[in-house]
Amino acid sequence: MDDEPYFYHPLENIEDIDEFETAIERTHFNKALSEERPYTYWTLEIYDQENGIRGGGGLGVLAADTRRVAEQMGVPFALITPFYPAESKQILKDNKVADEHIKVDYHDFGFRLIDNVYVKCCGNLCKLDVIEKRFKNTRIICVTEPNFGELYSGMSGSDHRLYQEVSLGFGGYSALKLLGLKPAIMQLNEVATFFAALARLDELASNGMDFYEAVVYTRKHTLYTNHTLVQAAEAEFSEEQFERFVYPNLKSPAVKKWLKDKFENSKLKLSSVTIEIAELRSGVSKLHARVANYHDISGNKVKFRAITNGIDFDKWVLPEALTFYKKYDIIDSIGLPTANYKVALDNLTSKTVREIKHLGREVLNEVLSDRPDQNGKILHFTDQDFIFDFKRRFVDYKRPDLPFEDPTRLKAILKSRDAHYIIAGRIHTGDERMAARLEKLLNTVKNDDYLSAHVHYIPNYDEKLAYGLSCGSNVAINIPIVGLEACGTSWMKDIANLNLLISTHDGGVADVSAENYLNVHGTSEAEELEELYRRMEEAISAWENDFDLEFLMKKQLAAFLPVISGARMLNDYLEYLF
After folding, report:
1. Cβ neighbours of residue 65 closer than 8 Å, sequence gap 6 or more
2. How many angstroms separate the CA atoms of 253 and 251, rounded?
3. Domain boundaries along the sequence of the chain
4. What share of the chain is helix, strand, coil (3-state, %, to 5)?
5. Between 63 and which of 43, 272, 429, 499 could a Cys-Cys bridge form, CB atoms 3.0 to 4.6 Å apart?
6. Using CB atoms within 10 A of its CB, is residue 509 exposed (0-12), middle (13-18) or buried (19+)?
7. pLDDT tens for residues 386-424?
């Protein structure tokens, strides 16, 4: 059998399932992970500009961080994703956002062409390049072709989106075989990666394994990770689309029948079949895992294991801050908080905070040196300047324009310290409603001389700008509507880089008590807005008082260092999986 499991334990009836599970458990640790049997991580996007792939947001950033952390921890790891031959760059003209489209070539970023694989779509045999880039014990494996389009091109239920997802699933699985790799585990990040597990199920069933055993085996080795409580649009496809794009790639009649039986009214939601094919399921924060509302085919609510996202400290933390953490044994060599980290945090003084922030301000100025704001002005900040920032995707539930509900009050707060407010965040391509809201916000700013000089929108938000703002700002603002943020990671970078956090109690922030940061709460949006303004005033005051600054910084770090650690995240996944 081409993908023979670690053992072969035939099932004669459904009562044997406990015995089957025991057999799996006995062999997991013996042959769990190796170079030939890596941890495989499937994602429709990765945000890794150094390697020539620009994602759309947090999901892609997290994918890149996970691979880097796996490398630091020595975990055999293969990340499988499309390489998109075009990407969009957002520009601002007359306060209106527009997209520019740029071609990219994988040859420019150190990828090597391995060979070709094929998927069948609409009666055609579609050739995909398999490209790879290796990093010690990890690798990025991509499938691509010249007409692949951009990330998330087309609507979620469009033919082109389905083609991209089928190419990643069936083409990516064929790419693993081409490279001689057999997945020890398949982590499916969001439902768009479902077809990778389907390809594995089909191979097992078509190569002679009993269909029921193939289902159990696939389920036991597949983790579905849901990353968002706010689906941009639930992925749903018609059976007619599956006839053209999916069924031609299936060899097993039993798998095809299994899939056909999942349709309701000739429509299929990918979430329903992803839940069916993955026995292991995770949400990306404690709150997310509790409130994620998904049901299986029988209508039973599905339980999710809480594994909060984390960040790669080496990537996102100012080197001088990271040196401090390691010098005083606050975190270890791979980014895990030490057993004694809370006591070790006593070494953090307000003087150290200000010295590190001075270096971070230099990094921010360098990043901003070729990035004009909405007025065409190149910004440069001194240590005496005070900076609030909002750097998140410009979407409704994150409420980027909430502070501007009362421009007079916001102006008074900024004037009290002659402070600046920086906004950075990409708008989803085609999201005309949020583009209109940004235009309205910027026109409000434009019509006030003080706000125009102190509120800055920096277009084309990317990794570099995210890093610069995390290092160089004083206060980060994170105010999603409570219950709608799955996790978020921008705020994690802020805490690690010694920014004060103003936030609602949502996503990963809610992993700890609200008393550990500058919490925004209220029973109405009006109350939350008033609390936000009060917290902004409190943050200004804290930065002007060494005792308060030191106290708040230590409290944030003591509460959140274990939460934000990427090494902790990957450890949690490995513990859950193995």
Report:
1. 310, 311, 312, 315, 316, 489, 566
2. 7
3. 14-273, 314-565
4. 45, 20, 35
5. 43
6. buried
7. 999 999 999 999 999 999 999 999 999 999 999 999 999
